[in-house]
Task: structure prediction
Amino acid sequence: MTCRGRAARWLAAIVLVLVAGCGSDTQLVLVIHSDMGVGEMDRVRITIEGPSSTVTPPEIVLTAPGAPAFPLTLGISPTDGANTQITVTVVGSLGTTPIVERRARTNFVDGDTRALVMVLRRACRGLCLDSPTMTCGDDGTCESIDVPRERLVVWTGEPPPFDDRPQPLGTCQSPTFVMGAIGTVSVTFDTTGGPPGVLPLGAQCGAGNEPPQSIIRYRVPGTGPMGVTFTTANPGTDTAFDTIVEVRRAGCNVPPPNGFGTCFDDAVIGSVYQSAGGFAAEGGTDIDLLLTGYMGSTGASGRARLDLTARPASAPAVSTVGVGLASDGALFATAAGQDADADVIGVVVTLRDRLGMALDTTADGMVDQNDDLWNFVDDAVSEPMFRVRASALLGGPAEDQPMYLVDLGAVQADVRVFDETYQLSAPLTVPIGLRPIGPGQMCVAVPLAECAGELACSGGVCAVGSAAMSACGEARALTITGGVGTAMGSLPAGGVFESSCGAGSSREDLHRITVPGDRRYDVLATTDRPGTGASVDTVLYLRQQCELPTTELACDDDGAASGHSSIEALELMSGDYVLFVEASPPASSYQLEVRLRAVREPGEACDPAGVVDRCRIGVCGAGSVCG
Result:
C-alpha cells in the first residue's frame, strides 16, 4: 500500500478511532466531490454504519474559518475484519435544511486501499430520499446503493478527479430534481448529443419536438403563494444555444394549453437566443420545466444554466380600468390598482357582446383563453400603486380595427393585469370607449367614433363650440414664483368642457401656465389643500391646447384624499398650457397649488429631496449631483 500525496483523515468503520499514518493495509478512502457552491450547500454530515455500531464524525461546516475545500477525504479502517460491510451516508445541507443525499453500501478489499467516490450533485437535490436501498446516481437518476468491490477506485494517494461538466437531464420518468429556495438556485444542463425530443410541445411554443429535451422538476419553496422567475441568459449558457423553456403545471407529460405565460422563447431584452419567464405556484408543489432548443436553429442544443429565483408573491388587484380606441385606431387598455410586488408587466382583455358573452376573436369556432388579447404594457408606473397602458392588442392594420370590433359585436370588455410571474388580477368589466376624434374630422361615417370631449358634430365634422372658444380666451394666467403658484376659486354650475377621467357638474376654471424655455419641467398640480372643502369632489386636467381635448396630457378625478385631485405631467417643453379645475357639487370653493419641478441632466446640481427638481436619468447622488 502506498500512502502519499494528499492526506486523508482516518477513522475506524466501527468505532471512532483515529488511526496513525495510513492505518492498516485494508482501508477505504471516502472522497466527496460536489458541483454546488456554498450558497447552495454550506455543511456536510457523514454517517458510517457497520455491523455492530455507527460512527458519525463531526459535521463539516464549509464556511467556517480554515474549513476544508472539496474534495473532502476521510480514511476508514475496519475493526470487525477485512470483509466488513459498511453503509456510508453523506448529507449536504444549507443551514439546518438537508439539500442533497448520497448513500453507498460496500465492502473493504482485503489487504488493499480503495477510494469510494461520492458526488453531491446539484442534479440530485431532493431525489431518492425515501428508499433505504436507493440513492441518486451521477446521471441524476435513482440507482442501488450497492457498490461492488470492482467499482472501488485504487487509491494512489490523490483523490480521483471530478468531472463537473453538466450531465444530460432526464425524462419524465427520471427528471432532474431542483429543490427551490428563497433567492436564486441554479442548475446546469447539456443537451449536446442527446436523442431527439419525444414530448410534444404545447401549441404556444409551436417549435416541434425534434431537438433534444431536458426535464427539470422544481419544488417551489416556502408556503402559500410564491412567485418564481427564471432565465437562461447568463454566462453558463452557450451564446448560440437558442433555448426554449416551457412551463408544465399539470404534469410532465401534459402539454400546456395554448395560453400566454406557458412558453418562453427569445424572451430576454437584448439577447438573441436566451429565454426568461416566470410562474406562480403554491409553496411545496412541483413544477416541471421542459428545456429544449428551437427546431431548425444551428443552436438547437447546447450547454445552459437555468437560474430560478423564488420569493413570496401576491397577485395584483385592479381598481379602475378602461378600454377604447386610440387616435390611431388601435385598441388600448388602461388599468390602475395595487400590487405589493410592484412587478405588473402586462394586460389581458376579454371582449364581450351586449349580453356579456365572450367573443370568438380567433374565429376557430371555440371561445376559450386563446381568444383573450394579451400584451405587455407600453406605458407604466410600476409601484405598489400602479398605472399601466397597453395598446395594439388586436394586431393588423389599425384602420381596420374599428370595423373589426363592429363586426364582432364587441361593446364591453374584461380587463385584467398580470405580473412577471404571470399571476392574474381579478377582472373588471367596462364598456369599450368610442374613439375620440378631433376638430375638422368626419363624425358621421366613422364606426365607433365620436367627437372628443366637448367638441360637437356640426355639418358632418367635429367642431369647437363658441362657448369653449370664449372660455379659452378668458383663461387666467397663473403666477408662479419660486417654482410654486396658487389660486383660489369658486365654481358655479354650467360646465362647458369634458375630460377623459371625470365629469364635474360645475363651470370650469381655466388657468394658463407658462413653462420656461431654459429646460424641461414637470408640472405638478393638486387641489388637496386646506382651501378645498372636505366634501368637494374636484377634477383636474391639463391640455397643451385649450380648445383641443385630444391634446390632454394628464387627468385625475379622485387621486388625492377626500375626492380631491392631483396630476403630474412630466418633462414638458417650454410654452403655454391650460389647467382645468372642475368640482361637484356646484358653487364649490377650491384651493389650487401648481409646482414647476425642473428636470436636471447628469452632472448638474440637484435637490436630494426631489422637490425643487429631479434627475432625468439616475438619482441625486453624492454631492447633490445627478449621476
In short: The chain is about 5% helix and 40% strand. Residues 1-23 have pLDDT under 50 and may be disordered. The helical segments are 401-408, 466-473. The two ends are 67 Å apart (CA to CA).
